[in-house]
Amino acid sequence: MALFSKDALNPGVRKREVFGWAMYDFANSGYTTVVITAVFAAYFVGGIAQKAEWATFAWTAALSVSYAIVMLTMPSIGAYADLRAAKKRLLAWFTAGCVLSTAALAFARPGSVALAMLLVIVSNTFYSYGESLTAAFLPELAKPEAMGKVSGWGWGFGYFGGMLALGICLAYVIWAQAHGIPAERFVPVTMVVTAAIYGLAALATFWLMDERARPNPDALREGGMRASLRQLRGTFAQARRYTDFMWLMGCAVFYQGGVAVAISLAAIYAETVIGFQQQETMVLIFVLNLAAAGGAFAWGYLQDRVGHKLALGSTLVGWVATCVIAAVSTSKGQFWWAAALAGLCMGSSQSAGRAMAGLFAPPRQLAEFYGLWTFAIRLASIVGPLTFGAIAWASGGNLRAALMSTTVLFAAGLVLLVKVNVQRGRDAALQAGTASA
User: Fold this and answer.
1) Model-level pTM greater than 0.85?
2) Which of 94, 133, 157, 393 is most buried, judged by most C-beta within 10 A?
3) Three-state DSSP class for 366?
4) In order of start, what are the domains of the chain with their CATH numbers?
């Protein structure tokens, strides 16, 4: 248990609260693993859209619309959550929305492209809201010098939730295929299973985790949304004070765009280009999640030892290598190497970025700053997959060329990361906290 020392936690924070917080990563990972990565993405292209030339573009377009909604609304929602001390309450509503709309994906059948796209937009929007709000609890739980490892605990544990959901779905898919059940009948069942695991596991979060923030009296007098918008305008007006947070957001727009390509298009690429069968793809994603869990956990400790900037930068170099290996792979064996490396880089880069954002967030504006962080990563999630889909469409379906172009996103993120000064960014956050106290 020394690995999970209470010394990493802020005074008064109990281990059960951190476990409850990590359980949300456990709960929502099944959504990204099964819906966005392993099962529904490939089913949308091959089953619902029936392998039309525009199918991959339509999938990326649906994701991009959801990310645009989140990008434009999450910063103000975050400011509202801070001023009203409503992170936990809003998280409950968003969780319910994602669970219900994920279960509703069971009604998407071959040919029902519009319905499938609408439900993906709704479910992914609610998922993204929840992801942002749960991240805003991190600085309340972890000491600044332990932000990396605690973030890694959450990300690492979360991937096991994805593996649980995917493992159950994989067992069912193998059984269904052995009995001659077609995809239009077994894929809907996996959506219901994923929604159920999400909802049940998230109950532990709401039971164990406390809302530690206190409402701002001005917000109660003035009206929550008006006060939150005023707070947000003030933050943008003082953006120069948060130079390093802004550089980190710019870095995230690029590298998270590449990560979004891996998450939303890995199954499509594996089946379309490399020739994986659906059950092989699910096994591949399962192993990728296992590698990601190890990467997130180990890199969290490394991050606190060698520094946030170096830890994140090393993962971006790894991502460039991953894209090149995957783009030139001609066999399943070669692609397995790329997938294993992608898993290590995925867990470590996402955990490292979340921890750095927490360091740069003023203590009284955590949800707001994570809302801004979400603005950056959802913009990235539009830029990355939509660019991939557009290049694939324009090149007549050449997914190898589209994947190779993704290396540019990670390289650009690495260049912008050079501009970040971690200590200066942390000092700015603490000064803002002192000024608002």
Assistant:
1) no
2) 133
3) helix
4) 14-209+225-436 (1.20.1250.20)
